[in-house]
Structure formats: C-alpha cells, structure tokens
Design the sequence.
C-alpha cells in the first residue's frame, strides 16, 4: 500500500495531521482556561 503513494504525500499528510492536532489542542486549551476564569 505504501507503494501507491509518493513519499512526499505521506510527509505532507503527517504534517497536516500534526498541525491540526496542535491547533485543536490550542483551541481546547483556550476554551478550558476561559471557562475557568469566569
């Protein structure tokens, strides 16, 4: 299955997933801190 996709596509996919998770964690942290401050 790895032979069907070029290596650059896998690298780009991993980067997108990592950035998406970091962004989601940052937004979740903002909402959590905002709820605690009220």
Sequence:
């Amino acid at each position: 299955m790895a032979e069907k996709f070029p290596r650059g596509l896998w690298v780009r996919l991993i980067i997108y997933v990592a950035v998406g998770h970091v962004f989601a964690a940052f937004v979740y942290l903002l909402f959590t801190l905002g709820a605690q401050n009220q």
Notes: The mean pLDDT is 90. DSSP finds one helix and no strands in the chain. The radius of gyration is 16 Å. Residues 7-37 form the longest helix (31 residues).
